[in-house]
Write a structure and sequence with these properties.
This protein is of the alpha/beta class. Helices cover 37% and strands 14% of the residues. The chain has helices spanning 2-19, 21-27, 36-45, 49-57, 76-85, 136-148, 177-192, 209-212, 234-241, 263-273, 292-298, 315-323, 346-355, 371-382, 399-409, 438-454, and strands at residues 63-65, 103-105, 165-168, 171-173, 197-200, 203-207, 226-233, 249-256, 280-284, 305-309, 332-334, 361-363, 389-391, 417-421, 461-465. Bound molecules: zinc ion (ZN) (2 copies).
Length: 467
């Protein structure tokens, strides 16, 4: 009860302080250290950007992360205020007064608290950059080495008038004015810092690469572990990939490649082969007909996510996938929207058997899968004991086969969500262009519900598409 009372008093005093913004801004100069985190949290939730800016200016800890406060992507105003409040510190600063902030983290990462060094005796930040030459850790290590090797002073080239600092931020380079304004603020701030501020971008999104090339110069690509790129020429993608050596996730959409025998595609494969940490590869609208075997050969065996939608895959590509050791440990596999010709069922059956020990998510929507294909791959599918989500919407199948699938899949105890196509039997004409007979759809759903109840698997959610 006593604790609850204290909390309430604290909350009340913070609320009262924040109700007078200019008083709050003045108060942060003298604020007891223990009140920084609760006041910052309250001001953030109330979106009081001027108070936040003032608090960043005098922040008494080494790091500040806003991820735990679940910021929205549209928080540009707040992020700008905080960047504005970031103080560059003189290199010789050893004073205990003023800000101690060296790492400002504006990413949406809820895993860590607002600061790592709260109450800690030694200031450490668990999220500081380890890759860039301009990171605090690497600069301080270089300084230490210089001292150990007897150099009186550090190389004048690396010596800055300001202490090294880091700004961790996920960046989106697109055509929206607000995003552009934010990027130009960052450019100004980094220029102002004379190289002492390291802009650390781990999650990078780029729309239309050819028009963003110049702005991208502010990003040290060695730090980026996730890249999402929409609309680009393969030649420009290669230039980027050659620098992204620590990439864990790569998503490419709408990449232009004129020839698969030309230099650009070969360079692309070389760059992919150097991404030793790659776990997730997503390609969309990337025509790969009969070329997938080349791509699979260069990928790392730890790949756990592979999405190849709208990639014009052929039976040969599917065969390559089923024979590739790189695809043996997949947790997520998406092959939707490839108009496959199902002369043979073995490739997909073999593929499912290969990944049966790890696969959790399977999506094969709109792949022209018929009754015979689905029945043929069912033994492989039934072995995927870790499968949680299975989607096979927009494929021409009939009611008896749908019921047979349901009966087999109810044995997969981890499977929770299934998205299935409305069977051909429920259309007024027996083709996809016909309209749905709603009475038949209702009867079909009732039948599936009964079957799930009989199998004691009402925990599974079966959703028809279209509904
Ligand atoms: Zn930290
Ligand atoms: Zn970095």
């Amino acid at each position: 009860m006593a604790r609850k009372t204290v909390d309430t008093l604290l909350e009340l005093s913070i609320k009262s302080l924040l109700s007078n913004e200019s008083a709050a801004i003045q108060a942060v100069e003298e604020l007891p250290i223990d009140l920084f985190v609760p006041l910052f949290t309250a001001a953030f939730l109330r979106r009081q950007k001027e108070v936040l800016k003032a608090m960043v200016r005098v922040w008494p800890f080494r790091c500040l992360h806003i991820g735990a406060l679940h910021p929205q992507e549209s928080n540009y105003d707040i992020m700008e205020a905080m960047v504005d409040g970031l103080q560059l510190l003189p290199a010789q600063n050893s004073s205990s007064r003023g800000t101690k902030l060296r790492i400002l983290d504006l990413r949406q990462d809820p895993e860590y608290g607002i600061t790592c060094s709260y109450r800690a005796k030694y200031p450490v930040c668990f999220l500081s950059c380890v890759y860039s030459q301009h990171s605090i850790i690497n600069i301080e290590e270089a300084e230490l080495n210089a001292r150990c090797y007897g150099k009186d002073t550090i190389d004048s080239r690396s010596q800055s008038v300001w202490q090294p600092m880091e700004l961790l931020v996920d960046l989106s380079f697109n055509c929206f004015l607000r995003a552009k304004q934010f990027i130009s603020l960052l450019i100004n701030k980094t220029e102002q810092s004379l190289g002492s501020l390291h802009l650390c971008c781990r999650n990078l999104q780029i729309e239309n690469l050819s028009v963003q090339k110049n702005s991208l110069k502010i990003v040290d690509l060695v730090c980026t572990d996730r890249l999402e790129l929409d609309k680009a020429h393969l030649r420009d993608v290669n230039t980027l990939l050659s620098q992204l050596i620590n990439l864990e996730s790569l998503r490419l959409t709408d990449v232009e490649c004129r020839s698969y025998t030309g230099k650009n595609f070969k360079t692309f494969l070389t760059c992919l082969g150097k991404l030793n940490s790659l776990e997730e590869l997503t390609l969309s609208f990337f025509s790969l007909t009969n070329q997938l075997h080349k791509l699979l050969r260069v990928l790392t065996p730890q790949l756990d996510t592979l999405s190849l939608t709208f990639c014009d895959l052929s039976t040969r590509d599917l065969t390559a996938l089923s024979q590739s050791t790189q695809a043996n440990h997949l947790k997520l596999l998406k092959l939707s929207n490839n108009q496959l010709v199902w002369e043979f069922h073995e490739p997909l059956l073999n593929l499912l058997e290969n990944v049966s020990g790890t696969l959790q998510y399977l999506e094969i929507n709109n792949c022209l899968i018929t009754d015979s294909t689905l029945s043929a791959i069912l033994p492989g599918l039934s072995r995927c004991s870790h499968l949680r989500i299975f989607s096979f919407a927009c494929n021409p199948i009939t009611m008896p086969v749908l019921m047979n699938i349901l009966q087999h899949l109810t044995t997969l105890m981890e499977l929770r969500y299934v998205i299935y196509p409305v069977p051909l039997d429920c259309y007024n004409q027996s083709d996809f262009d016909g309209s749905l007979d709603q009475e038949k759809v209702a009867a079909m759903k009732a039948q599936l519900k009964l079957m799930l109840r009989a199998a004691q698997r009402e925990d599974m959610k079966w959703t028809a598409f279209p509904e």
